[in-house]
Write a structure and sequence with these properties.
Strand order of the largest sheet: 5-4-3-6-7-1-2-8
Radius of gyration: 17 Å
Structural class: alpha+beta
Oligomer: single chain
Number of strands: 8
Distance between the termini: 33 Å
Helix content: 10-25%
Strand content: 15-25%
Largest sheet: 8 strands, mixed
Length: 187
């Protein structure tokens, strides 16, 4: 079992998750786990980068737009073999969300536990399509200031009840065990 810390780059205050996954998880499955743990909906493209190699899903038009390895053919345990090893996971190339994934522990799986699971984290994931780290900061500024010219527009745009400070690892673990849509579902 790999214990991973996933941290969203370039946002303050930090948004992060601590997750546990089976070590032999394929990268395409790990991507779904990370999407769900972070709070992304999974309808944007993504890619992993480890040791200068890119891993992603081959596009639906017959190949990769860049030199890359098929993510479904590679396992977490083959890429991150020791505590402290890290890789980057990019989500939504238009908004440019970059995440650091770092191994905090590798240990035998607990036979009484169900994996994947989220054991800790901080703050809500930014809403989809809010414009990347820069747009997210503008969103936070606007919703915090009732006098901001875009306060009402952006408050109305947000999902009902969205709170940037809210995060519940138990709720997230529950969602991680539910079947998730794949990128094929969006095409």
């Amino acid at each position: 079992m790999h214990s991973l810390k996933v941290t969203l780059r370039s946002v303050k205050p930090p948004v992060w998750r601590r997750i546990e996954v089976e070590s032999d998880v394929a990268l395409d499955e790990l991507s779904q786990v990370v999407e769900t743990a972070m709070g992304w909906h999974g309808y944007h493209l993504h890619a992993f980068e480890a040791d200068g190699v890119t891993y992603e899903q081959a596009d639906h038009f017959g190949g990769f737009d860049r030199e890359a390895c098929e993510e479904a053919d590679h396992r977490l345990s083959d890429l991150l073999t020791e505590v402290g090893a890290a890789m980057r996971w990019d989500y939504d190339f238009g908004d440019g969300w970059e995440h650091d994934i770092k191994v905090e522990a590798i240990s035998p799986a607990d036979p009484s536990a169900t994996y994947p699971r989220c054991i800790d984290g901080r703050r809500a994931c930014p809403p989809e399509d809010c414009g990347g780290p820069w747009g997210y900061q503008n969103l936070l500024d606007a919703i915090a200031d009732k006098g901001h010219p875009r306060h009402r527009e952006l408050t109305d745009w947000l999902p009902p009840g969205w709170d940037p400070t809210h995060f519940d690892p138990n709720e997230t673990s529950k969602y991680m065990l539910e079947p998730q849509p794949t990128s094929d579902d969006w095409w």
